[in-house]
C-alpha cells in the first residue's frame, strides 16, 4: 500500500531526500519539473500549442519557471511566463530558476497588481502559483488573479496541486481554487484528491515520481493508505489441489423482501461468483423460484426457520441487509444474528438503517464486523458531517469505538479499520453509480469472509475487485450490476496468477 503524506510530511520527505540522497534542492526541483514535462507531453502533444505558465514566487513557482525552460528544450516554443509578484518574498530555488529562465529568451511578464491583467491568448495555462505550501485561503490580489483565470475557461494543468486547494483537511465549499482539467502531482496523490469536494478543483490527476526517498515515505506514520494491485495479488490465495467445496466456506445471505428481492439475488449470486464453497440465501418464500432460476447453485434457508431460531453454527460468514426492509421482523433477524455472534458478519443497506434506528445494537457488533454504508446510510447511523474530511475522521473514531471495519462507499471507497487505518480503494468509475451495485459488493465481502480471509483483507479484496470489474466495462455508459458479477471469477484468477 502506498503511504499518503500530509503537506508537512511531504516537506520532511523533500528535506530528507535532499540531505540523504544526496541531491541539491535545485536538482530535486529540476527532477520534479522534468517529471511534469513527461506527463504534460502525453496530454498536450502538439508542440506549437500556445502555453502560458503562471508562477508564484515560492517553490511551486520555481517549478513553473523550470518547466517553462524545459518545455522550450522539448521544442515547445510558444511559451510565455507570468509571475504573480504580490510580495517581496521569493524562495532561493525560485530565484535560481529565474536567472536560468532569463537566458532562454522566453517572455516574462510580472503581475504586481490586479488593476489590469495581462492579455491572455494561450490555449493552455500551467498553474504554478501555489503548491503544497498553501497556508490559508486565497485572498486579495492572488484571489482576484485566480478568479480572472477561472473566467477565461482555458485548459489548466496544475503543478503538484491546484492553487488554493489544501492538500488535506476540510475543503471549504466557498474556497477560491484555480480549477484544473489535469493536475500532475509529485510522488503521491494529495489526500484531498479522494474527496468528492475536490471535483471543484480538478477533473483528474496523474502522479509522477520525482525521486523522493520511498523508504522514508513508506515509514511515515499516518492513517491514509492507497491500495495497489500488488496488495491484491499478495493477498489472494490460489485454490489448492484436492480442495473441495468445504475448503472455501459457507456464506449465508440474509436479504430480500417482496419488493426488493432482486437485492438478495444479486448479493447471493455475487457471493457465489467470488469463490465461496457454498452459498445459502435466507429469503422470503415468494423469492424461491426467482432465486432458483437466477442462481440455481445457491441454496435456500427458509426465512421462517431463521425466525424460529435456526442455528447459524454451520455458516462461516453472514451478510445481512440488502433489500431486507426495516420492519420488526428484519430488526429481530439482525438482533438474532448479532446475539449469535460467531460467524463473520457484513452488515449493509437496510440492516445499517436498522442499526441507525436502534443504536444500542452497535455495542453488540462482533469484533471486526464489517459495515458498508453509502454516504446517506453513514450519516443516518453516525450523524451528519460538514465535509468528507470530517466524515472520514468520524468513521475513524467510530471504527475504533466499536471495533468495526467501516467501508464507506463512494467513487473512492474508504475502508476504515479499528487499528486506525484508512485504506483508499482506487478502482471503479461513475458507470457503477447504478442501484444494486452495493448488493454485489456485500455478496463479495461475505464470500471472502467465508473463505477465511482476515476481515480487513476481505473488505479490501471485495472493494478493489468490484471496482476493477467496473473498470473492465469502462466502455459502457452505465453498468447493470449483474454484469459486474460475470467479471468476478476471471478477475480473481487474473490477480491470483503471478504478475
Ligand atoms: N525541494 C522541495 O521542497 C521541492 C518542492 N517542490 C515544489 O514546491 C512546492 C511547495 O513549495 P513552497 O513550500 O515553497 O510553497 P508554495 O510555492 O506552494 O507557496 C509559496 C508561498 O506562498 C505563500 N502562501 C501560502 N498560502 C498563501 C495564500 N493563501 N496567499 C498568498 N500566499 C500564500 C507561502 O508563504 C508559501 O511559502 C510543491 O508544491 C512543489 O511544487 C518541488 O519542486 C519538488 C521539490
Ligand atoms: N462514481 C463511482 N465511481 C466508482 N464507484 C462507484 C461510483 N458510484 C458508485 N460506485 C460504487 O458502487 C457501489 C454503490 O453502492 P450503493 O450506493 O450501496 O448501491 P446500492 O445501494 O444501490 O446497491 C459502491 O461500491 C460504490 O463504490
Ligand atoms: K499549483
Automatic annotation (TrEMBL):
Looking at the record's lineage, which domain of life comes first?
A: Bacteria
What are the UniProt keywords, alphabetically? ATP-binding, Isomerase, Kinase, Lyase, Metal-binding, Multifunctional enzyme, NAD, NADP, Nucleotide-binding, Potassium, Transferase
- The gene name on file is nnrD
Family membership, please give it.
Belongs to the NnrE/AIBP family.
A Pfam family annotated for this UniProt entry: YjeF_N
Limits of the YjeF N-terminal domain:
10-218
The answer on whether this UniProt entry bears the keyword NADP reads yes
Q: Which PROSITE patterns match?
A: YJEF_C_1 (PS01049), YJEF_C_3 (PS51383), YJEF_N (PS51385)
Q: Does the keyword NADP apply?
A: yes
Q: Which InterPro entries match?
A: Carbohydrate_kinase_pred_CS (IPR017953), CARKD (IPR000631), Nnr (IPR030677), Ribokinase-like (IPR029056), YjeF_N_dom (IPR004443), YjeF_N_dom_sf (IPR036652)
Taxonomic lineage of the native organism: Bacteria, Pseudomonadati, Bacteroidota, Sphingobacteriia, Sphingobacteriales
Which residues constitute the signal peptide according to the record? Answer: none
Q: Per its record, what are the GO molecular function terms?
A: ADP-dependent NAD(P)H-hydrate dehydratase activity; ATP binding; kinase activity; metal ion binding; NAD(P)HX epimerase activity
Q: Which residues form the YjeF C-terminal domain?
A: 228-495
Indicate which residues the UniProt annotation says bind K(+). 60, 127, 163
Which PANTHER family does the record match to this protein? ATP-DEPENDENT (S)-NAD(P)H-HYDRATE DEHYDRATASE, ATP-DEPENDENT (S)-NAD(P)H-HYDRATE DEHYDRATASE FAMILY MEMBER
What cofactors are annotated for this protein?
K(+); Mg(2+)
How and how many cofactors are bound, per the record note?
A: Binds 1 potassium ion per subunit.
Q: What is this protein called?
A: Bifunctional NAD(P)H-hydrate repair enzyme
One biological process term from GO is: nicotinamide nucleotide metabolic process
Record's catalysed reaction(s): (6S)-NADHX + ADP = AMP + phosphate + NADH + H(+); (6R)-NADPHX = (6S)-NADPHX; (6R)-NADHX = (6S)-NADHX; (6S)-NADPHX + ADP = AMP + phosphate + NADPH + H(+)
Write down the NCBIfam families for this protein, in alphabetical order.
Answer: yjeF_cterm (TIGR00196), yjeF_nterm (TIGR00197)
Amino acid at each position: 500500500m502506498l503511504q499518503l503524506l500530509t503537506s508537512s510530511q511531504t516537506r520532511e520527505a523533500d528535506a530528507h531526500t535532499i540531505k540523504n540522497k544526496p541531491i541539491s534542492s535545485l536538482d530535486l526541483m529540476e527532477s520534479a519539473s522534468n517529471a511534469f514535462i513527461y506527463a504534460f507531453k502525453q496530454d498536450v502533444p502538439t508542440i506549437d500549442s500556445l502555453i502560458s505558465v503562471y508562477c508564484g514566487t515560492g517553490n511551486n513557482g520555481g517549478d513553473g519557471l523550470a518547466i517553462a525552460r524545459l518545455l522550450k528544450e522539448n521544442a515547445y516554443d510558444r511559451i510565455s511566463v507570468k509571475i504573480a509578484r504580490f510580495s517581496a518574498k521569493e524562495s532561493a530555488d525560485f530565484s535560481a530558476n529565474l536567472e536560468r529562465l532569463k537566458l532562454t529568451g522566453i517572455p516574462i511578464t510580472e503581475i504586481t497588481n490586479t488593476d489590469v491583467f495581462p492579455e491572455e491568448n494561450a490555449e493552455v495555462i500551467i498553474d504554478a502559483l501555489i503548491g503544497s505550501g498553501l497556508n490559508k485561503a486565497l485572498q486579495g490580489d492572488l484571489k482576484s488573479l485566480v478568479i480572472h483565470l477561472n473566467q477565461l475557461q482555458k485548459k489548466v494543468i496544475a503543478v503538484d496541486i491546484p492553487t488554493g486547494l489544501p492538500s488535506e483537511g476540510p475543503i471549504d465549499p466557498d474556497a477560491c481554487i484555480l480549477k484544473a482539467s489535469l493536475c500532475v502531482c509529485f510522488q503521491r496523490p494529495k489526500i484531498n484528491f479522494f474527496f468528492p469536494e475536490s471535483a471543484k478543483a480538478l477533473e483528474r490527476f496523474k502522479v509522477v515520481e520525482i525521486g523522493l526517498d520511498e523508504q522514508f515515505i513508506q515509514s511515515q506514520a499516518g492513517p491514509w493508505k492507497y491500495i495497489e494491485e500488488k496488495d491484491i495479488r499478495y493477498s489472494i490465495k490460489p485454490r489448492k489441489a484436492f480442495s473441495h467445496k468445504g475448503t472455501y466456506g459457507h456464506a449465508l445471505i440474509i436479504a430480500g423482501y417482496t419488493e426488493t428481492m432482486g437485492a438478495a439475488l444479486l448479493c447471493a449470486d455475487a457471493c457465489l461468483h467470488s469463490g465461496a464453497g457454498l452459498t445459502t440465501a435466507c429469503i422470503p418464500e415468494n423469492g424461491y423460484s426467482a432465486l432458483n432460476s437466477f442462481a440455481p447453485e445457491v441454496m435456500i434457508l427458509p426465512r421462517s426457520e431463521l425466525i424460529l431460531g435456526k442455528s447459524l453454527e454451520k455458516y462461516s460468514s453472514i451478510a445481512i441487509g440488502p433489500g431486507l426492509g426495516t420492519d420488526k421482523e428484519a430488526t429481530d433477524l439482525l438482533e438474532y444474528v448479532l446475539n449469535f455472534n460467531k460467524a463473520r458478519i457484513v452488515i449493509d443497506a437496510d440492516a445499517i438503517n436498522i442499526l441507525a434506528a436502534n443504536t444500542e445494537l452497535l455495542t453488540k457488533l462482533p469484533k471486526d464486523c464489517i459495515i458498508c454504508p453509502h454516504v446517506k446510510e453513514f450519516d443516518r447511523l453516525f450523524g451528519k458531517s460538514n465535509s468528507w474530511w470530517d466524515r472520514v475522521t468520524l468513521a475513524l473514531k467510530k471504527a475504533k469505538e466499536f471495533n468495526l471495519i467501516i467501508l464507506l462507499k463512494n467513487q473512492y471507497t474508504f475502508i476504515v479499520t479499528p487499528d486506525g487505518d484508512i485504506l483508499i480503494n482506487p478502482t471503479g468509475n461513475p458507470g457503477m453509480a447504478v442501484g444494486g451495485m452495493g448488493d454485489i459488493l456485500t455478496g463479495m465481502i461475505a464470500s471472502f469472509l467465508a473463505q477465511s480471509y482476515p476481515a480487513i483483507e476481505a473488505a479490501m479484496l471485495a472493494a478493489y475487485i468490484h471496482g476493477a470489474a467496473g473498470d473492465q466495462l469502462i466502455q459502457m455508459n452505465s453498468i447493470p450490476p449483474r454484469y459486474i458479477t460475470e467479471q468476478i471469477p476471471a478477475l480473481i484468477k487474473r490477480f491470483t496468477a503471478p504478475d
